[in-house]
Structure prediction request, 139 residues.
Amino acid sequence: MKFTETSVDVRYAETDQMGIVYHANYLVWFEIGRTKLIESLGFKYADMEAQGILSPVTDIHASYKKPLTYGQKAKIKTAIKEYTGIKVVYLYEIYNDDDELCVIGDSTHVCVKKENFRPISIKKCFPEWHEAYMKAMDV
Prediction:
């Protein structure tokens, strides 16, 4: 499994009254990690969308282990956990400045036609993505 890494500064606006990162912000960070992973494979969501294909989230999970606070840096590690040619499950791990695991999660996506939300086969419609995803899972 090939992980990509990116980081974000924890901004004050992302924290709650308790001074810790508000839980929904981790989902935004998942998306940042997923986008970076796709770019590291040589692709962009925008190119797929320009061809009339969307990749909605069909399921998402997050398990909170340790809080992150304002002023820290969140390190987002992302990998492809499962890929079937139609469905993709991305794995996320978010760490703090001390390299402690703070959040672990995953999101499930399918690619659909924009006009009718019917699923498409990534393997058939985007063979380059398919090959890259297969290779990323083998590493």
